[in-house]
Amino acid sequence: MVWQEKSLQPVEDLTLRQAEVDDLDMRIRLSVEAFGMSREDAQSMERSFEKEGNTNMLMIDVNGQTVGKIRVSQKDGQAWIYGFSILPEHQGKGIGRNVLRRVIKDQSSVGHSVHLEVETKNDHALGLYKAVGFQIVHSQDYYLYRL
Fold first, then answer.
1. For residue 59, what are the β-bridge partners?
2. Are 55 and 73 in contact (CB under 8 A)?
């Protein structure tokens, strides 16, 4: 999906901050709860992100409490959003919409086009992304091949 320029309201009620070493357990928890990963797979994946040079792992804080994460990678004038998740108990409160607005505003203000990938069967996420201006530009099906 790619963001199509549209007017964005300012976002003031949340904080996006660079992830720190102390955030690793929360990042793992978010991957387990939001994406259904095993703890071991989530831990391995989260540790691998620490080696990426052009990526920012951001923690999402609301009223001083960490409620989510989002990874933003920049390359060749494009910003890509990955691993965006909000704890289930904080979903449906507009936090995700506000985070996306903030990231889009920050990235587009420096000239980046903003992109993301999403599971096409995730209607909730698709609705959120479309609501802030993302449009589907490519779709790919995955199949399980049994040996």
1. 17, 69
2. yes
What is the predicted pLDDT for the residue at 117?
77
Model pLDDT for residues 90-124, shown as the tens digit of each residue: 988 889 989 998 999 899 999 999 988 776 667 77
User: How do the domains of the chain map onto residue ranges?
Assistant: 2-135
pLDDT at position 28 is 95
What whole-number distance in Å separates Cα of residue 8 and Cα of residue 115? Answer: 16
Angle at CA 7, nearest 5°, toward 61 and 70?
30
Q: How far is the C-alpha of 38 from the C-alpha of 102, rounded, in Å?
A: 30
Look up residue 130 and give its amino acid. Answer: K
What CATH number matches the domain at 2-135, 3.30.460.40, 3.40.630.30, 3.40.50.200, 3.90.25.10? 3.40.630.30
- Annotate 93-119 with DSSP letters as a single string: SSHHHHHHHHHHHHHHHTT-EEEE---
Residue 76, classed as helix, strand or coil, is coil
